[in-house]
Amino acid sequence: MPAPAFIIVRHGNTFEAGEPPRRIGARTDLPLTAAGTVQAHALGAHFAAQGWHFARVLASPLVRTRATAAAILSHLPASPQPEPCDWLREIDHGPDEDMPEDVVLARIGTGALAAWDERAVAPPGWTVDAEARLAGWRALFAQSEGPVLLVTSNGAARFALMAAGLDAPGSLKLATGSYGAIRRSAGGALDVAEWGRRP
Q1: Which domains does the chain have, with CATH numbers?
Q2: In a structure prediction context, what are the per-residue pLDDT tens digits for the chain, which is 199 residues long?
Q3: d(CA 127, CA 91)
Q4: Is the separation of the CB atoms in 164 and 180 below 8 Å?
């Protein structure tokens, strides 16, 4: 089966089991945990089992995304080398960077977090550069027929659907170790085949 035009992967876990989650963005370059590496290999094995081959591979420059891409590609030996892509870099959480979730929620409130997850409206103090991210996705969609594998973070991935004018099936958020798939029809229209699927 041919791969959808764009496969968008969120990196694997960066927190150990039982470790309180924190808001990790562009300024906190964590490695994958052992479980995160397992997630990345599961993605690669899944894509290989589907018979998918990628014409291009783009990855954020962060350690966690590069490691995820490397693990995936170890299952797809004919794939091209990943191209570093800065507009896929995670956002900057400003005063909430590396802070526990309860502290973040106390500062911004549940409504602001819901607006971020559902509509990509950044809470006060976060640096997102939404227009540059939307422009990056739109240029990719316009210039590439695919199939393209993109390995990124949650903050950057959500702008793919917005740039394509597609509705999120639920939340814009991708879970760690999951992927979204955007197809292109024969007429050039884009649609969402998967969003948030973990192998």
Answers
A1: 6-92+128-197 (3.40.50.1240)
A2: 678 999 999 999 999 988 988 999 999 999 999 999 999 999 999 999 999 999 999 999 999 999 999 999 999 998 999 999 999 999 999 999 999 999 999 999 999 999 998 889 999 999 999 999 999 999 999 987 779 999 999 999 999 999 999 987 778 889 999 999 999 988 889 999 999 999 9
A3: 6
A4: no
Beta strands in the chain (DSSP E): 6-10, 56-59, 83-84, 148-152, 179-184, 190-197
pTM of the model: 0.95
For 84, the 3-state DSSP assignment is strand
Q: What is the pairing mode between strands 179-184 and 190-197? A: antiparallel
